[in-house]
């Protein structure tokens, strides 16, 4: 194990589960735990910030309507913009990501996600919803120039059991996704992007009182 530590890696975790307790938050915590363990084993200090989108739901809606982010939402947006990696987990509703999840993505400065490593997680009642990771969630982050890792982790209700059906167990999938994420976070340097002296302090949509792209 290396004894020399590099700059602290900043990981942001976003969970859009609506219930308490939430299997979506549980999956987010498991993904973050494995990713942090991977990075610390390699000698990195890690700072983790977790945001429950249900706590920001009113602020997100107000921002969509008014183009202004209240302090709690602004803190989440700033954290994403300055992160070295993002773990994003959503429940699957009607074959796709939750509306709250998409609304949060909509209020992020599009440039903030450029080259950002993303570990995608999703939860749903049955395994057939797992395809939503690749036909809905992954293209969303790719469109925004983020870098989703190859393995997306889906957890169906039955996956929280012992995994004795011969299918790769949930802990194994979590470990694989977290390892790929840690590999990417370790070799990605977004400091020049985050500290660009010519970048706007706020997205253009904020400066003109609305959202860019409207």
Automatic annotation (TrEMBL):
<dbReference type="InterPro" id="IPR051814">
    <property type="entry name" value="NAD(P)H-dep_FMN_reductase"/>
</dbReference>
<protein>
    <submittedName>
        <fullName>NADPH-dependent FMN reductase</fullName>
    </submittedName>
</protein>
<dbReference type="InterPro" id="IPR029039">
    <property type="entry name" value="Flavoprotein-like_sf"/>
</dbReference>
<dbReference type="GO" id="GO:0016491">
    <property type="term" value="F:oxidoreductase activity"/>
</dbReference>
<keyword id="KW-0288">FMN</keyword>
<dbReference type="InterPro" id="IPR023932">
    <property type="entry name" value="CE1759_FMN_reduct"/>
</dbReference>
<dbReference type="Pfam" id="PF03358">
    <property type="entry name" value="FMN_red"/>
</dbReference>
<feature type="domain" description="NADPH-dependent FMN reductase-like">
    <location>
        <begin position="10"/>
        <end position="160"/>
    </location>
</feature>
<keyword id="KW-0560">Oxidoreductase</keyword>
<keyword id="KW-0285">Flavoprotein</keyword>
<dbReference type="InterPro" id="IPR005025">
    <property type="entry name" value="FMN_Rdtase-like_dom"/>
</dbReference>
